[in-house]
Each structure stands twice: as C-alpha cells, then as structure tokens.
Design a protein that fits this description.
The protein is built from no helices and eleven strands. The protein is mostly beta strands and 119 residues long. The strands form two sheets. Strands 2, 4, 5, 6, 9, 10 and 11 form a seven-stranded mixed sheet that branches. A four-stranded antiparallel sheet has the order 1-3-8-7, with no helix packed on it. A hairpin with a 4-residue loop joins strand 9 and strand 10. The protein starts with a strand and ends with a strand.
Length: 119
C-alpha cells in the first residue's frame, strides 16, 4: 500500500518562505518521479514542479526562480523550498508520486498541506 504524506504548510506574509516536505512509502519497486501540484479555492489543480529519478526538474512559469524542488537520496522524499511567496501562491499543495509498488507504475496523491500567504 502506497502512502503519500505532506507536511510543512502554514501561514506567512508576502515575501516570506516555507519549505514543504513529502514522504512516499510503499513504492517497493522504485519511484519514477515526484511532483507538487496546487489548488486554490474555485480553481483547478495546477502543476507546480516535478523531479524525476535522474534529478531532472521542471517548474511552472509562475514559480520559476522562487521555488526549488529537491528529493532525498532514496528518491522517496520530496521537498519544495518556496521563497518570495506571493498571495497568489495561496493554495492547497499536493504531492504526487509515480511509483511502482506491484509491478506497475501508478500515480499516488497525498492529502495536501495548506499554504496561505497574506499581503
């Protein structure tokens, strides 16, 4: 059973920083990539950033230069350093892993961690 658990959300003022963490357990046969998405109230879930097993990264234009994604050596821990936060970064942040627990790679999602940025 794959479990994905996020932590590190909170409330900050604009210009502040937060670091999100995510741990995926149960990916017995490996992790292909891990990613962050976010969803603001009344909006669709959107891509923020991902990192694959070869440490290749991708970012949404809206966060480039402000957010940095990284992963642990075991590739099952994911981090998002968020600097220069803006009120428009306010959202529920979700961690997704594409991993293999039973011979097939599937997407698994966490429950989310709330980030609130006040002006």
């Amino acid at each position: 059973q794959v479990q994905v658990v996020e932590s590190g959300g909170g409330s900050v003022q604009a210009g502040g920083s937060l670091r999100l963490s995510c741990v995926a357990s149960g990916c017995t046969y490996g992790v292909y990539l891990m990613a962050w998405y976010r969803q603001a109230p009344g909006k669709e879930r959107e891509f923020v950033s991902h990192i694959d097993r070869d440490d290749r990264t991708s970012y949404a234009d809206s966060v480039k230069g402000r957010f940095t994604i990284s992963q642990g050596n075991a590739k099952n821990a994911l981090y998002l350093q968020m600097n220069s936060l803006k009120p428009e970064d306010t959202a529920m942040y979700y961690c997704k892993t594409n991993c293999n627990s039973d011979g097939y790679y599937r997407n698994y999602w966490g429950q989310g961690t709330q980030v609130t940025v006040s002006s």
